[in-house]
Amino acid sequence: MTADGYNYRVFPPEDDVEVFARWTEALKVGTRAPDPELLELASGQTVALSSYTRRGLTVVELGSLT
Amino acid sequence: MDELYRNYAERGVESVFVYVREAHPGENSGPQHSFERKLAHAHEFQRLFDVRRPILVDDLEGRAHRAFGQMPNMTYILNSAHSVVFRSAWTDPDTIRLALDYLLGVQARRRAGARLAPFYSELQGFRWVDDAAFQAGLARNGPRAVREFAEATRRWARGEHLGSLPQRRTSAELRPA
């Protein structure tokens, strides 16, 4: 998926219904989570999500300003 | 969620916010056309809501967001082996608190010598519905965000979301700005 396709201009996004329908079957409890590299806003450094989770239980919320 | 973060940090729980795409872009907070813009939105989010948790910004293509299921505001709890031990399609502090108390209890019981085997379970969550706050958020994003959500709500009520998605998009783009 391209950046333009992912960052939709008009709500709802084209994949809206599919995302909601797919979610119940995606990344279930008991499976290993993806470990993306992300930019840490405070430090400006790129970090792996696992750099947090290896410390213990980690709440990972995904969202945005809007 | 930041209050929950502070309360559970004392008990050894980490919390992060992964910044993803704009769910309801409008004139004031439009879609992310560059990573610099995404960073600016993340800083604005931190300032506006006084977010104290670490904010981790996803890339412009949303690789992390898509890998986790792409819902607009979901929450996972991962353990130290990086495995999913809780997930919720919407972020709801009460549900997360319930899960954390349970999981911390499991850790404590194991430390005390209890033999506990994992099993799969599910829970129907119930989140607060605060229409006024939600509409205020849309208004902050801009009139277009308000208009598009109102139109989407009408279409959902008519069941049109079960029809052709490209048709819906074309129809929305043809509306006057």
Radius of gyration of chain B, in Å, reads 19 Å
In terms of structural class, how would the helical and strand content of chain A be classed? alpha+beta
Largest interface: A-B, 53 and 92 residues
Whole-number tally of structural domains of chain A: 1
The side-by-side strand order for the widest beta sheet of chain A comes to: 1-2
Task: Look at the helices and sheets of chain B and give the structural class.
Answer: mainly alpha
| SS elements, strand count of chain A | 3
CATH topology (fold) name of the largest domain in chain B:
Glutaredoxin
* Head-to-tail CA distance between termini of chain A: 21 Å
Topology:
The complex is a heterodimer of chains A (about 70) and B (about 180).
Chain A: H1 3-6, H2 16-23, E1 37-40, E2 46-48, H3 50-53, E3 58-63
Antiparallel strand pairs in A: 1-2
Chain B: H1 2-9, E1 14-19, H2 35-48, E2 55-57, H3 63-67, E3 74-78, E4 84-88, H4 93-111, H5 131-141, H6 143-157, H7 165-174
Parallel strand pairs in B: 1-2
Antiparallel strand pairs in B: 3-4
Verbal overview:
The complex is a heterodimer of chains A (66) and B (177). Chain A is an alpha+beta fold and 66 residues long. Chain A is built from 3 helices and 3 strands; from the N terminus they run ααββαβ. The radius of gyration of chain A is 15 Å and the shape is extended. In chain B, helix 5 crosses helix 6 (143-157). In chain B, strand 1 (14-19), helix 2 and strand 2 (55-57) form a beta-alpha-beta unit. Classes of the chains: A alpha+beta (66), B mainly alpha (177). Strand 3 (58-63) of chain A pairs antiparallel with strand 3 of chain B.
Short descriptors:
heterodimer; A: 66 residues; alpha+beta; two-stranded antiparallel sheet; 24% helix; extended; B: 177 residues; mainly alpha; Glutaredoxin; 2 domains; two-stranded parallel sheet; 7 helices; 4 strands
